[in-house]
Each structure stands twice: as C-alpha cells, then as structure tokens.
Design a protein that fits this description.
Radius of gyration: 26 Å
Shape: globular
Helix content: under 10%
Structural class: mainly beta
Distance between the termini: 59 Å
Strand content: 35-45%
Length: about 500
C-alpha cells in the first residue's frame, strides 16, 4: 500500500528520556510521556553556505552544510506531577526527598517494606499506587514491627498480597501529641516548639515551607497558628518561622487534640557539588506513513538536550501552563522502518490542571521585614504573573563536529513579571527605593499542591497605567537574587516545595 499523503498533528506524540551522559542513553532508557499544547522550533536548523566564486556566468555553485543548531521546546499545562521530573533539569539539582519505600505487600495491619526503620511512630505517610482504594491516601504510622523490622503499621488497610510495581509510601508529615506543641512569640520571630519531636530528624531545611494543621480538629485552636509557614531555622525541638499566611500568637500547649504538620519535597538551586546537570533525549513521534503498519512510527529526536529556559505562566481565568526549552548537541530522524528508539514506555499519570481562579491558597508579594512573619502585602490582586528561570545554555562548537560536542551553562537567572491592581503609593515607592521584596505562591488542588518562592527580588518598571473607565494597574518586572544577605541559610534564588498530600484545611476557600 502506498504511503499516506499527509499526517495530522493529532497523530503525533512526545516523550523524553534522561541520558546516562551527554548524548548517551542508558541501555534501557525510560521514556516518559509529555502533554504538549504546542511546540517551539523543535529540531535542527542547518546552516547552508553557497559557493559564490567570481565568474563570468554570474552564477553560484552548490553550497555545503556547515553547521547545525539543535534546540526545541514546548508549552504544556502544569499539573501536580507532569513536570516535576524535568524541573530537576531546569534547576540543575536533585529533589531533597523525604523517605519513601516501595511496598511489597499490604497486610491487615501494615505495609511490608524492605526497611521500616526509615519511618517512625507518629509519622504521616501518603500511600499511592495500590489496587485497593482503601490502601491509598494519608495514613498514620502506629508501630514499626517485625524482626528484622519490615512492617509499617497503620489502621484501615485491606489485604493486598501483590501490589502494583509503583505502590509506595512516602513521608509527608508528622503528628504532635495533644499539648506537645507550643507557639513562642516572645522573640523577634515566632517559634513552634515541641517537647518530644526532634525537627532536625525530619529532613527540614531553612527556606522550606510547611503546612501546620490537619483535619478533624488536628490543629492549633487559634487558626492563625495554622496554615503555610516558611522555616527560617531548624534547631532540634524548635523551628523558627520567618513567613506566615497570618500573624502567629502565643500558645502554651493548649491543643486538646493532636496537631498535624505536613511537609513536601524541596527543589532549589544548589551550590558547589550539589549542582547537577542533567541531559535528555526529547522524542517527537511523527505518525505512521503506511496505514497498513500503524505501529511503525517515524520520529525525530533532540540528543544531548539540556534545559535552558522555563516559564510558569499564570493568567487570570486560565490554566497554569509552562514553556520549557532545551539546547541540544544534535538532532536525529528515524524512519518508520527504524521505528522509535527502544526502552521502557511509562504510562501517562492523569492529573488535572491547576486553574488560576480557585486553586491559589496563597499569592503574596511584600517588602521583607526580618522581624515580622506576616508583613503587609504590596498588592491585593494581580491580573497576571509569570516566573522565568534561565540557565543561559549555549552550544560548544568545534572543527570536525556538525552540531555541538557539549554545552555550557551560564548564569542561573530567575525573573518574574506581573501586573498588579494599584491601591497604595507604597508599591510604587518600593520600586524607586530598590526595596528588598519577596514573592511566593501556593497552589492546592485535590489534597496536593506546590509552592514557588523567590526569597529576594528587586522590582523594576513601576509606571502606573491609567485608562478611562478602567482600574489603575502597575506593571512590574522582578529580578531575583540569592537571599543570603537576608538569611545566611537561604543561599539560593528560587525554591519549590511539592506536597504529595495536604489536608482539606489547606484547600482555598
């Protein structure tokens, strides 16, 4: 049968696999699916130089291919899970993960894992990937059993002898017993203090955001002591809070119920040996040209692709989406006879998009006040907001190489743009005074969510826009910088926290 005369865009697909080293895939790569809304210059751009000698015919001679620039990008809706892995490449860093364990069996009393001692009594774990719905979700560890200790005991489980391969439990929080926690506001910044917990054993760091308070009354009686809090210092049995959704008040240990504290996985730009460059191969499938062989798909690849620029787009009455681009050392094409590259093809995890109207639990920009955990915000509302991370990646060219033999990452630049509704002149003065400002956003949906935090920014632009019959707006540009001058422990420019589980209390109202 003859090949088709055309192939529609809806027949295409995209995936990526992390490389073992630049340009080299593992023996069995894992191809993870993408959900592109659109592409941006995906492929290789060839440079053609024609021969143009001086001659009486006044004609040029056939040219030659002298260079190849391989690059590409795509726009994709931002969900809880679909870009987390690639964000490690954007940030040149690994997630600072909390303990997690694959589960080999679920008994009536607990989860069977290789080593249960990575968890402790009173830990809150999030179980996922199990066939029986009752085994998924938030669970509280009641005991560590076995000899050797392999059972993480929890209530409400259903026997599941052979869970799916991806079934696991992950540490997402901790329970403080009734009356165990106090809130001390006698110092410059408030502290949450425990008589039994050692916060230093939970993997918490300065700059990390936590959520204080659980459902069913497992929270502080005064609501202002619950909610999203940013940690300034972890010191054994106490944590100092330098940013809070609300101004905290003293509590001498009044909670009659347990208090739940939730935390997530942290991703920030790291220093020194913790900086990690990842490279990928990006695959774009281009359909099957022969209708009689629908599984023989032609494709193209970006090889040795390093994440260059990432932009998180937040527009009013819209979905949150992201643009991500890569600089690669080469690109390849494969015919339908060659088919796509070998490897394990991961299934797409279906998750809903975040919407910008009802999924924001927190969105604030304020002048930094080292002695106030809840400074007045500069604005009440924004009409749009975008965060951009740029690694300034450039290809390394050489004689005898078509394309590039390597890439070089430049300065890690983080910026943002926003348009705010004007209400007070202090916002305009903050631009002129080159004030120390911070911006952070928390997004929550279906008991999960994320926070992005820029702990130190400088504001630019700031010229008021006044139009007839319209509210006054203030366009702002923002350049982020390391916040080490604010707190020597916050020596980074941007930080993400992804929460695998959050209580209903965290859901925006």
């Amino acid at each position: 049968m003859a090949n088709r005369q055309k192939i529609d865009s809806n027949e295409t697909g995209a995936a990526y696999a992390e490389e073992l080293s630049l340009g080299v895939l593992p023996v069995t790569p894992i191809w993870k699916p993408l959900e592109p809304n659109s592409y941006d210059d995906f492929g290789g751009e060839l440079t053609l130089l024609a021969r143009n000698p001086i001659n009486s015919s006044r004609q040029r001679k056939k040219g030659v291919i002298t260079d190849l620039d391989a690059s590409g990008g795509f726009n994709q809706d931002f969900t809880q899970s679909n870009l987390q892995d690639l964000l490690q490449g954007v940030m040149f860093a690994d997630f600072r993960n909390k303990p997690s364990a694959t589960v080999t069996e679920v008994t009536a009393t607990g989860f069977e894992v290789a080593d249960a001692n990575i968890f402790a009594i009173g830990n809150i774990v999030f179980a996922s990937g199990f066939t029986n719905p009752g085994n998924n979700g938030m669970k509280i560890v009641t005991a560590i059993n076995g000899s050797p200790e392999t059972e993480v005991a929890a209530a409400g489980l259903v026997v599941e002898g052979a869970p799916p391969a991806g079934a696991k439990i992950t540490l997402v929080g901790v329970v403080a017993g009734s009356g165990d926690l106090t809130v001390d506001v006698s110092g410059t910044l408030p502290k949450i203090v425990s008589t039994t917990l050692n916060f230093g054993t939970l993997g918490l760091i300065a700059g990390e955001w936590i959520f204080v308070g659980g459902d069913a009354g497992n929270s502080f009686p005064d609501a202002v002591n619950n909610g999203f809090k940013r940690i300034s210092l972890v010191d054994g049995d106490e944590i100092t809070i330098d940013l809070s959704q609300t101004t905290m008040v003293a509590d001498g240990g009044s909670p009659a119920n347990d208090v739940h504290i939730f935390f997530g996985r942290v991703l920030k730009n790291e220093l020194g040996p913790l900086i990690k460059r990842r490279s990928y191969q990006l695959e774009r499938q281009l359909g099957a040209p022969d209708p009689a062989q629908p599984n023989n798909v032609q494709s193209e690849y970006l090889v040795g692709a390093v994440a260059n620029e990432f932009t998180l787009n937040i527009e009013q009455a819209d979905k949150i989406n992201a643009d991500i681009s890569f600089v690669a050392i080469n690109n390849e094409q494969r015919t339908a006879a060659q088919n796509v590259k070998i490897g394990t093809r991961a299934a797409l995890v279906e998750t809903d998009a975040f919407n910008t109207s009802s999924d924001f639990a927190m969105l604030r920009m304020n002048i930094i006040d080292p002695s106030n955990e809840n400074p007045d915000p500069l604005f009440a509302y924004l009409t749009d907001l975008s965060f951009t991370i740029n690694n300034n990646v450039s290809p390394n060219k050489a004689v005898a190489v078509l394309g590039a033999f390597d890439v070089t990452a430049g300065t890690f630049e983080v910026s943002a743009e926003a348009t705010a509704y004007f209400s007070t002149i202090e916002a305009v003065q903050a631009v002129r005074n080159n004030a120390n400002v911070e911006i952070n956003a928390a997004v929550v949906k279906e008991n999960a969510g994320f926070i992005i935090d820029l702990p130190l920014i400088a504001l630019g632009d700031g010229r008021l826009e006044i139009e007839q019959d319209e509210p006054i707006t203030l366009p702002l540009s923002m350049d982020a910088a390391t916040a080490v001058k604010i707190n020597p422990r916050t020596d980074y420019t941007a930080l993400w926290v992804f929460f695998d589980y959050l209580p209903n209390l965290a859901t925006p109202v």
